[in-house]
Design brief:
Helix content is 29%, strand content 22%. By secondary structure, it is of the alpha/beta class. The strands form two sheets. Strands 3-2-1-4-5-12 form a six-stranded parallel sheet, sandwiched between helices. Strands 6-11-10-7-8-9 form a six-stranded parallel sheet. The radius of gyration is 19 Å and the shape is elongated.
Length: 244
């Protein structure tokens, strides 16, 4: 059986490792190509978009794909919506493999917001030093609140360059340690963190560091799901594929 993994996450890579050399499942991975130097999974991999729903549906049909696992980032809502539509059109079963969202614990000071524009507005009454841990694609939303000092961490530089009068860019890729995150917050005298509720362990240390220092976290909640069945680990996704 031929399967397609929509990847770009640690969960997708874990599933790819399980599928390497599988006797009954011939799997390939697709990456969006938004990261300049992606970590390539151990399976045949294509990089680049499909051209919307029509392009993805054509790819499924032309390549004889019989199952799709959407293991993209929890905030990659466009490709996830395209996968739902394309799989419905072609009759291909679809499963979502995603990490569980983070939940606040005792001592957390989270401010939940629905999107990045709301996150920027939430900063106005908060401290002057802001740590943006949102990736590189939505930094421009914070140009609406220019009177802050921004520390921006991303794998690749933001494009376009943010029009912010006071910012510093750190290029780095997780996983991050608690010791390192605490030192970073101390060094830059961070007053508030902005994060997407991505879940997972690779970047979770920043939340514990914020808890220990009493720093508020403006947390952008995930977009609503598409009603597709979800699993939260690669083994469960493999089991689903094997039942097909």
């Amino acid at each position: 059986m031929k399967a397609l993994i929509l990847g770009g996450t640690t969960e997708a890579t874990a599933l790819a490792r399980l599928l390497g050399g599988h006797p009954r499942i011939d799997a390939a991975v697709s990456l969006a190509g938004r990261t300049k130097q992606p970590v390539l999974p151990p399976l045949p991999t294509r990089i680049g978009g499909f051209g919307g729903v029509d392009g993805l549906a054509a790819h499924l049909a032309e390549n004889g794909i019989r199952a799709v696992v959407d293991a993209t980032h929890p905030f990659a809502d466009q490709i996830s919506a395209n996968a739902v539509a394309a799989c419905a059109r072609t009759g291909v079963p679809l499963l979502v493999l995603t990490r569980k969202p983070w939940v606040p614990g005792a001592g957390d000071r989270w401010i939940g917001v629905p999107d990045m524009a709301a996150a920027a507005e939430a900063l106005r009454p908060l401290g002057g030093s802001v740590f943006l841990t949102i990736g590189r694609q939505e930094v421009a939303a914070f140009e609406a609140v220019p009177g802050k000092r921004y520390l921006i961490r991303a794998v690749d530089p933001p494009e376009p360059v943010p029009n912010l009068p006071d910012y510093r860019l750190i290029l780095d890729r997780g996983p991050f340690t608690l010791e390192g995150e605490c030192a970073l917050l101390e060094e830059h005298r961070v007053d508030v963190i902005v994060s997407k509720n991505s879940g997972g362990t690779a970047t979770e240390a920043k939340l514990e560091a914020a808890r220990r220092r009493g720093i508020p976290v403006v947390m952008v909640e995930r977009p609503p799901g598409n009603g597709v069945a979800e699993v939260h680990d690669a083994a469960a996704a493999l089991g689903w594929l094997e039942t097909l």
